[in-house]
Amino acid sequence: MTLAALPPEAYLWFKTLHIVGVVVWFAGLFYLVRLFIYHREAEELEPALRTAFQAQYALMERRLANIITTPGLIVTVAMAAGLLIAQPAWLQQGWMHAKLGFVAALLAYHLFCYRLMGQLQAGSCTWSPKQLRALNELPTLLLVIVVMLVVFKTQFPTGAATWFIVALVVFMAASIQFYARWRRLRAEREAAGGAA
What we know:
The chain has 196 residues and is mainly alpha-helical. It has helices spanning 10-41, 47-86, 94-122, 129-135, 138-152, 160-195.
Protein backbone atom coordinates (compact mmCIF):
# COMPACT_ATOMS: atom_id res chain seq x y z
CA MET A 1 0.00 0.00 0.00
CA THR A 2 1.28 3.44 -0.88
CA LEU A 3 0.46 6.90 0.39
CA ALA A 4 -1.62 7.47 -2.78
CA ALA A 5 -3.86 4.49 -1.86
CA LEU A 6 -4.60 5.93 1.60
CA PRO A 7 -7.19 8.63 2.26
CA PRO A 8 -5.56 12.10 2.37
CA GLU A 9 -6.10 12.47 6.12
CA ALA A 10 -4.76 8.98 7.00
CA TYR A 11 -1.23 10.21 7.73
CA LEU A 12 -2.53 12.85 10.14
CA TRP A 13 -4.77 10.32 11.93
CA PHE A 14 -1.88 7.86 12.25
CA LYS A 15 0.35 10.63 13.63
CA THR A 16 -2.30 11.90 16.06
CA LEU A 17 -3.10 8.45 17.45
CA HIS A 18 0.59 7.54 17.56
CA ILE A 19 1.29 10.56 19.78
CA VAL A 20 -1.71 9.73 22.00
CA GLY A 21 -0.50 6.13 22.26
CA VAL A 22 3.02 7.25 23.23
CA VAL A 23 1.64 9.56 25.96
CA VAL A 24 -0.54 6.79 27.41
CA TRP A 25 2.23 4.17 27.17
CA PHE A 26 4.80 6.36 28.90
CA ALA A 27 2.38 7.50 31.58
CA GLY A 28 1.94 3.83 32.42
CA LEU A 29 5.66 3.03 32.26
CA PHE A 30 6.56 5.94 34.52
CA TYR A 31 3.98 5.04 37.17
CA LEU A 32 4.36 1.25 37.00
CA VAL A 33 7.91 1.16 38.32
CA ARG A 34 6.95 3.77 40.95
CA LEU A 35 4.35 1.24 42.17
CA PHE A 36 7.08 -1.42 42.22
CA ILE A 37 9.12 0.84 44.51
CA TYR A 38 6.17 1.27 46.90
CA HIS A 39 5.52 -2.48 46.74
CA ARG A 40 9.09 -3.21 47.86
CA GLU A 41 9.05 -0.48 50.52
CA ALA A 42 5.91 -2.03 51.99
CA GLU A 43 8.07 -4.95 53.13
CA GLU A 44 9.30 -2.73 55.96
CA LEU A 45 5.78 -2.46 57.46
CA GLU A 46 4.38 -4.66 60.20
CA PRO A 47 2.95 -7.95 58.83
CA ALA A 48 -0.76 -7.03 58.78
CA LEU A 49 -0.13 -3.72 57.02
CA ARG A 50 2.49 -5.26 54.72
CA THR A 51 0.04 -7.88 53.46
CA ALA A 52 -2.72 -5.33 52.84
CA PHE A 53 -0.44 -2.81 51.12
CA GLN A 54 1.30 -5.38 48.94
CA ALA A 55 -2.04 -6.85 47.84
CA GLN A 56 -3.26 -3.37 46.93
CA TYR A 57 -0.06 -2.53 45.04
CA ALA A 58 -0.23 -5.86 43.17
CA LEU A 59 -3.79 -5.05 42.08
CA MET A 60 -2.83 -1.52 41.02
CA GLU A 61 0.17 -2.83 39.08
CA ARG A 62 -1.90 -5.39 37.16
CA ARG A 63 -4.60 -2.87 36.32
CA LEU A 64 -2.11 -0.21 35.26
CA ALA A 65 -0.14 -2.65 33.10
CA ASN A 66 -3.13 -4.36 31.48
CA ILE A 67 -5.62 -1.49 31.14
CA ILE A 68 -3.36 1.50 30.41
CA THR A 69 0.29 0.67 29.69
CA THR A 70 -0.05 -2.28 27.30
CA PRO A 71 -2.99 -0.80 25.34
CA GLY A 72 -0.91 2.39 24.98
CA LEU A 73 1.94 0.27 23.61
CA ILE A 74 -0.40 -1.48 21.15
CA VAL A 75 -1.82 1.83 19.85
CA THR A 76 1.70 3.26 19.57
CA VAL A 77 3.02 0.32 17.53
CA ALA A 78 -0.09 -0.01 15.35
CA MET A 79 -0.09 3.68 14.46
CA ALA A 80 3.68 3.60 13.86
CA ALA A 81 3.06 0.82 11.33
CA GLY A 82 0.45 3.05 9.68
CA LEU A 83 2.93 5.94 9.55
CA LEU A 84 5.55 3.71 7.95
CA ILE A 85 3.01 2.53 5.36
CA ALA A 86 2.22 6.18 4.63
CA GLN A 87 5.92 7.16 4.55
CA PRO A 88 7.87 4.04 3.44
CA ALA A 89 10.94 6.11 2.52
CA TRP A 90 11.60 6.58 6.25
CA LEU A 91 12.66 2.94 6.43
CA GLN A 92 15.66 3.83 4.25
CA GLN A 93 16.89 6.53 6.63
CA GLY A 94 19.44 6.10 9.41
CA TRP A 95 17.53 8.15 11.99
CA MET A 96 14.57 5.75 11.64
CA HIS A 97 16.85 2.75 12.12
CA ALA A 98 18.21 4.35 15.30
CA LYS A 99 14.70 5.21 16.49
CA LEU A 100 13.48 1.65 15.91
CA GLY A 101 16.49 0.37 17.87
CA PHE A 102 15.58 2.55 20.86
CA VAL A 103 11.92 1.56 20.53
CA ALA A 104 13.03 -2.09 20.64
CA ALA A 105 14.84 -1.27 23.91
CA LEU A 106 11.58 0.25 25.23
CA LEU A 107 9.67 -2.89 24.26
CA ALA A 108 12.25 -4.97 26.15
CA TYR A 109 11.85 -2.63 29.14
CA HIS A 110 8.07 -3.07 28.97
CA LEU A 111 8.41 -6.87 28.99
CA PHE A 112 10.95 -6.67 31.81
CA CYS A 113 8.40 -4.69 33.85
CA TYR A 114 5.96 -7.58 33.46
CA ARG A 115 8.67 -9.94 34.70
CA LEU A 116 9.33 -7.74 37.73
CA MET A 117 5.60 -7.50 38.39
CA GLY A 118 5.35 -11.29 38.44
CA GLN A 119 8.31 -11.53 40.81
CA LEU A 120 6.80 -8.92 43.15
CA GLN A 121 3.51 -10.78 43.27
CA ALA A 122 5.33 -14.05 43.94
CA GLY A 123 7.46 -12.42 46.64
CA SER A 124 10.69 -13.30 44.81
CA CYS A 125 11.81 -9.86 43.57
CA THR A 126 15.41 -9.13 44.57
CA TRP A 127 15.51 -5.56 43.26
CA SER A 128 15.85 -2.98 46.03
CA PRO A 129 13.78 0.23 46.04
CA LYS A 130 16.99 2.12 45.19
CA GLN A 131 17.66 -0.09 42.17
CA LEU A 132 14.05 0.31 41.04
CA ARG A 133 14.38 4.10 41.30
CA ALA A 134 17.37 3.95 38.96
CA LEU A 135 15.47 1.65 36.61
CA ASN A 136 12.60 4.14 36.58
CA GLU A 137 14.89 6.73 34.92
CA LEU A 138 15.57 4.58 31.85
CA PRO A 139 12.33 5.27 29.92
CA THR A 140 12.85 9.02 30.41
CA LEU A 141 16.28 8.82 28.80
CA LEU A 142 14.99 6.66 25.95
CA LEU A 143 12.03 9.00 25.40
CA VAL A 144 14.30 12.03 25.11
CA ILE A 145 16.52 10.25 22.58
CA VAL A 146 13.57 9.03 20.48
CA VAL A 147 11.93 12.46 20.43
CA MET A 148 15.21 14.10 19.43
CA LEU A 149 15.64 11.59 16.60
CA VAL A 150 12.11 12.27 15.34
CA VAL A 151 12.49 16.05 15.53
CA PHE A 152 16.04 16.40 14.17
CA LYS A 153 16.10 13.32 11.91
CA THR A 154 19.36 13.42 9.91
CA GLN A 155 20.48 16.71 11.46
CA PHE A 156 20.91 15.33 14.97
CA PRO A 157 22.51 18.15 17.00
CA THR A 158 25.91 17.71 18.56
CA GLY A 159 26.65 21.29 19.59
CA ALA A 160 26.79 23.02 22.96
CA ALA A 161 22.99 23.29 23.21
CA THR A 162 22.68 19.52 22.90
CA TRP A 163 25.17 18.89 25.65
CA PHE A 164 23.39 21.47 27.82
CA ILE A 165 20.11 19.57 27.38
CA VAL A 166 21.86 16.26 28.15
CA ALA A 167 23.39 17.80 31.28
CA LEU A 168 19.98 19.16 32.28
CA VAL A 169 18.38 15.71 31.93
CA VAL A 170 21.20 14.13 33.97
CA PHE A 171 20.83 16.87 36.59
CA MET A 172 17.06 16.27 36.84
CA ALA A 173 17.55 12.51 37.18
CA ALA A 174 20.23 13.02 39.86
CA SER A 175 18.02 15.53 41.69
CA ILE A 176 15.21 13.00 41.85
CA GLN A 177 17.61 10.40 43.26
CA PHE A 178 19.04 12.83 45.84
CA TYR A 179 15.55 13.94 46.90
CA ALA A 180 14.43 10.33 47.37
CA ARG A 181 17.55 9.62 49.44
CA TRP A 182 17.05 12.78 51.54
CA ARG A 183 13.40 11.88 52.16
CA ARG A 184 14.33 8.33 53.15
CA LEU A 185 17.07 9.52 55.54
CA ARG A 186 14.73 12.12 57.06
CA ALA A 187 12.08 9.42 57.66
CA GLU A 188 14.71 7.20 59.29
CA ARG A 189 15.83 10.07 61.57
CA GLU A 190 12.23 10.82 62.52
CA ALA A 191 11.60 7.14 63.26
CA ALA A 192 14.75 6.94 65.37
CA GLY A 193 13.76 10.15 67.22
CA GLY A 194 10.25 8.83 67.85
CA ALA A 195 11.58 5.54 69.20
CA ALA A 196 13.94 7.32 71.62
